[in-house]
């Protein structure tokens, strides 16, 4: 069994706990320093937003709920000391000395008619989680570096926060135990909770072959940029294009009938849309598939799902095979196979070592003149209703909170496009994140619309 002692939280003073970063945290920490130009370490930060409807006085009750979330997920308030590949994660206990400056630094109220999509992106230079409350639109906007949150973790933290908000309105003085006791809720990283083993020589050989094939795949269908990819980045932007509930039901039913996943069907649709948009005849496309690996947590009683907000997600380098002819269902079949391969082959459990070693080595010492390839990736979160419920209630009358919408954003300061896919309250949501310096809004909007129409046409649902 691997020695993970350095990754366990250790009390190093009367007020602080520390541990080393594991493989995925190291990778995401270094990725946060990426992007093109001066990004202030903001690359790949995660933001999750919830549009709510409630009679609760948000300005009055949110501070209590924010305190409660610190008790539930204290790791969100830790900071990385030093550079990710050599630094440590440091948590300062929430005593009287810490609480007042922490609240001032991390909690913000906005009396504006702007929505969370209008506000995106909000920069966060604290190195830990922050919360912005949009009073007029009743939205909660939680954001943190990728070392602290992944997609599922962001929705989990939002779930914990909304329930805490409902509870805070139910009890005049919600008993939130802080002052150091919350440190017992600090959770170790993926390498510990999933007992990720060290990489063997055979596994390293697999990593090397996978990396070579993946890099070679970028010669296939690839993004075409509207701006020079060597110029400094602009602001991340989003384009949101949900299906309605009726359309979503038809898509899900058709995918079940065909024995395929919605994720594989969307992957096929966006690959086809990209190939058409750039006028390519290539038959391969390099991208990254995203896999939630919380199922690998060994002791689920000790580490319940409510505490797993950090990066317990593994990106997998993938080369998609695209038939020479635009055969949609064959693309879906091949995409489904590609998504299932890492888990079916057992590779998924070893991949954290790839990101924490091979990729980190390239990132810290890139080959002379090298430039990271740009990609169009799909990040599928699945059905979000188990993570963000439609209704939350505390014990008292008037504590009800309805969730009208929830969405996630990632701050891209690189020449990439990321397609987010999730289902909430019966509706399939599609959203593209891109950087305005490298793509025109019209280009990305056309790609997204072509994906939507290609999905419906490919499944035989176009009217």
Characterise this structure.
The chain is an alpha+beta fold and 463 residues long. The chain folds into 2 domains: 5-192, Chloramphenicol acetyltransferase-like domain (Chloramphenicol Acetyltransferase); 198-458, Nonribosomal peptide synthetase, condensation domain (Chloramphenicol Acetyltransferase, 2-Layer Sandwich), CATH 3.30.559. 35% of the residues lie in helices and 21% in strands. It is built from 12 helices and 16 strands. The chain has helices spanning 23-31, 58-72, 96-106, 116-119, 151-170, 190-193, 201-217, 245-258, 262-278, 328-344, 351-364, 441-458, and strands spanning 10-11, 16-20, 46-54, 79-81, 88-92, 107-110, 130-134, 139-144, 236-240, 284-292, 313-321, 376-383, 391-392, 401-410, 417-424, 427-435. A 6-stranded mixed sheet has the order 6-7-8-3-14-13. Helix 4 (116-119) links the parallel strand 6 and strand 7 (130-134). Helix 1 packs parallel to helix 11 (351-364), helix 2 crosses helix 5 and helix 9 (262-278) crosses helix 10. It is globular. This is Acyltransferase. It comes from Cercophora newfieldiana. InterPro entries: CAT-like_dom_sf.
Shape verdict: globular
CATH fourth-tier homologous superfamily of the largest domain: Nonribosomal peptide synthetase, condensation domain
Strand portion: 15-25%
Could you describe the largest sheet, including whether it forms a barrel?
A: 6 strands, mixed
Count of beta strands: 16
**Could you give the order of the helices and strands?**
EEHEHEEHEHEEHHHEHHEEHHEEEEEH
Here the CATH topology of the largest domain equals: Chloramphenicol Acetyltransferase
Q: Gap between N and C termini, in Å?
A: 57 Å
Helix content: 25-40%
CATH class label of the largest domain: Alpha Beta
What's the mean pLDDT score? Answer: 93
Indicate how many domains the architecture comprises. Answer: 2
Helix-strand makeup class: alpha+beta
| Cα Rg | 22 Å
Annotated CATH architecture of the largest domain: 2-Layer Sandwich
Protein name: Acyltransferase
Organism: Cercophora newfieldiana
